[in-house]
Amino acid sequence: MNIAFNVNRLAMIGLGVTLKSLLDNCSNPSKINIYILCSDLNIEDKSNIHKLLLTYGLNEVKLIDFDVNEHFGTFSSLQGDLTTYGRLLLQDYVKEDAVLYLDADLVVELDVLTLEGFDFQGKGIAAVDGGKMKDALDHPFLCNEIGLGMDLAVFNAGIILFNLKYWREKDIKNQCLAFGKKYGTKLRSHDQTILNAFFAGNFAFLPLEFNMPWFAQNKRPEAKKVILHFVGSPKPWDVLGKYVHRGFSVWKSYLNADWEKAYYHYNQGEFLRAWHIRRSYARLLLLKMKSKN
């Protein structure tokens, strides 16, 4: 089974926990091929990834460098960064017919091998049903400018099973890049906006447990053996995340000691991110104050 990630240096702290939880809970890691698209990772970062994965007996590990500015330079950025769009390139880097893409802000409690042999039913992707288009942040653009229906099913792009055979046959990658270049400043949810533009209402459904959102202020979702997805900001590892994210202890339980030493500390990049998400911190503070009244 092929599993892909897409990271820059800021995502390394989350990647370690996602990888460890994924493989600790996999029934047969020797069946797993890992592909990691790397944006500005250094030699030490790559060495740390190989060291973390060494004990699992994986079938194959590939670390693939890519230049975000070359491919996505005109697209709207996520807090000044374009790495998130890297998943749109997977048809070029994974030669097999399917790949499970995972964000690096997850705790994977289930066995991903249950998706082996998944039936795409002729669709280009599979994802967890994320509700109706009318409730999506980017629905004004997707409905009013692109012409999509308000009642179409949409999805979160953090966990996607890609039908790469379909993507290559229809050259979806280049269609996505052309769409991004045309509407670069209007991509409110970034690559997720692009993917929903192509596949909203036209994707196969993954079981709900494959993308269980967990917001900082909420209790743990009740379902067991799921993929916990730390959506929104702050994340458990962000500045003050230990105190404000209710999923911190679950996340920390999968943090490898060497990985913690290498990445669980704050530098200029982390503090800059904290500044970018300052409104999220303020919202959490207000919620805490209201809950005490």
Task: Tell me what you see in this structure.
- Helix content is 37%, strand content 16%.
- Helix 2 links the parallel strand 2 and strand 3.
- The chain starts with a strand and ends with a helix.
- It is an alpha/beta fold and 293 residues long.
- It has a single domain (2-292), classed as Alpha-Beta Complex (Spore Coat Polysaccharide Biosynthesis Protein SpsA, Chain A).
- Helix 1 runs parallel beside helix 2 (43-53).
- The model has no long low-confidence stretch (mean pLDDT 95).
- It is globular.
- It has helices at residues 12-24, 43-53, 68-72, 90-93, 139-145, 164-170, 172-182, 191-199, 241-244, 248-252, 257-263, 268-276, 278-292, and strands at residues 2-7, 33-38, 60-65, 98-102, 106-108, 125-127, 129-132, 153-155, 159-163, 204-205, 212-213, 227-229.
- The strands form 3 sheets. It has a 7-stranded mixed β-sheet. The chain has a 3-stranded mixed β-sheet with strand order 5-12-11.
